[in-house]
TrEMBL record, chain A:
GO molecular function: ATP binding; ATP hydrolysis activity
Main location: membrane
Protein name per UniProt: Iron-dicitrate ABC transporter (ATP-binding protein)
Keywords for this protein: ATP-binding, Cell membrane, Ion transport, Iron, Iron transport, Membrane, Nucleotide-binding, Transport
TrEMBL record, chain B:
Segments passing through the bilayer: 20-41, 75-93, 105-127, 133-155, 167-187, 207-228, 298-318, 324-343
UniProt keyword annotations, A-Z: Cell membrane, Membrane, Transmembrane, Transmembrane helix, Transport
Gene Ontology MF term list: transmembrane transporter activity
Organism: Micropruina glycogenica
Membrane-topology descriptor: Multi-pass membrane protein
Protein name: Iron complex transport system permease protein
GO biological process per UniProt: siderophore-iron import into cell
Family note: Belongs to the binding-protein-dependent transport system permease family. FecCD subfamily.
Domain of life: Bacteria
Amino acid sequence: MTTSEPMLHADTVTLGYDRHTVFTGLDLQIEPGTVTTLIGANGCGKSTLLKAFGRLLAPSAGHIKLGGTSVRHLSARAVARRLAILPQKPLTPAATSVRDLVMRGRHPHQTLLRPWSGHDARLVDDALAATGMTELADRDVTSLSGGQLQRAWIALVLAQDTPVILLDEPTTFLDLSHQLEVLRLVRRINADQGSTIVMVLHDLSLAARYSDRLVVLHEGRVLADGEPWQVITPEVLAAAFGLEALVIADPASGRPMVVPLEPTTAGAAESDSTELASEQSDARSDVHEGRRASQAG
Amino acid sequence: MSGRRGVDLRVIALPWRARVLWITLACLAAVLAALTFGIVAGSSRMGVADVWTTLLGAGSRTYQFIVFELRLPRVAAGIGVGLCLGLAGALTQTFSRNPLATPDILGVTSGASAGAVTAIVIGGGGYSVGASLLGFGIPVVATVGGLLAAAVVYGLSWRQGVDSFRLILIGIGVTAILSGLTNYLLVRAQITQATAATQWLVGSLSGVSWASVWPLAVVLAIVLPFALTQSAPLEINQLGDEFSTGLGVAVQRHRTLVIVAAVVLTSAAVSAAGPVEFVAFVAPQVARRLARTARPPLIASALVGAALVTLADVMARAALGTEIPVGVVTAIVGAPYLIWLITRPNLKERA
């Protein structure tokens, strides 16, 4: 793989189910070592695109390329050694310990004569440690809380030991502190292992806070694509979600934060919002300067 | 819950769970015990020691005749039928992720029944003819009927791959049609034919000989090792089809292979002994509860099936006085045990 090749490339793909087409001729590239989040309204095709990247859905036209090779020409196992995907609703098996669950992540690397090895066991231990599940390793998965179970699923995907990880709504059904825990874990995996991560999230502020790049999907096309401050703007929010909202700087992270407005008070809030808006533009220019500085360095 | 342990010998590395291992060995012991009882039970008296000395080649000529010619074929057929049905049940319940999905829903059993009853009613004049047909004609017709019905169910379920729910619903529909056909034939048949057909439909080991055992042995020798290679994908598939694909399982190919294996096993069992009821449903569930695993363990399920059929046949022959077809007894023996396992108050994990 040459450095010019994107990690993942949706090369003018047409995607859909049966006769319902979601995307026509969509083109999107994912750069190695980045955290990219797909956002958009319900039904905009975020999960459809993620499934196509994960070879769960074959495009009816065009190619999904993994490191330059069309996944159509790769076996499920060959893809699974390079790309892990956590689907939206995995089934929780009965009578299975956390360790046994995470062990299944090693399947793509195992062969008929070697369905298990010491190397597998070590990677499973590492995945359990990275997700803070070591002490729960012998617990039955059906007895875990929502947050613990989600960490167990992420541990499984980590044990797969792939350069690319796709996560479909990894924070759904979790309370705020567990959502933060999962997203911090995602950032840590990205930082420690240089993994390329693509995920689907619903919470825009959290997406902005923990992603390098946001891709807004709307009506079968990419409506906006770029760094959080470029993408999270009142105009994009209005177009993609029909949402009237302010975008302010998150005081904790300096990233954009979405504050929805009430339809009836939108006019009244305008005068108050001028102050916020100026703050926002300050914060934005700070961030822009910061970015320029980091790019220069 | 004990986790997985393993040995790594460079070329080959195997994981095991202690509980699954010893439950499997216990099931094997149960099968050997059932085999012994199956040979002991009969009109001429034989002790357990006599049985084993004869089996190991040191018995008297009389004992050798009784064991190898009279009793062992029937017991061996019972074990073979039980292994096939137990394994087929484990495969079907696992791939469909549904404990109620027995190989019956694949259409094999009802197709075989319809085929066999057609042959008996149209082809056979009376019970004696039906009985002689059991030697050759009926098993062949039953196999053909079973495979045809399974092919129809599979073909109708296919829509860009086979979805388990679709397969089950179509299987139930096809089974209902074939049962209707079978019942129609029974109602229209003469009383002797109807009796012969009913005897077959309940599932019986009374007509078996070594000729019925060999096909079972061949099928098991081919399908059992093959089924074991699908063990890991079956386990992965408990996480759902999408996760399985993500973990490198070629889901549709795997599913087709598992269905074909279950169909061949069931077809072999049904053509040897008729549709022995309930074994394919109960054996995997019993094995799973004993081993406390996420899915029915394959080998243990087969062994529980073998023990169940053999013990039920002993009871049908000996304990109840008059000879009763084994299929009548399997449910009476198997169901209470399963119910007891499920309702045991101290069981950690529930159905």
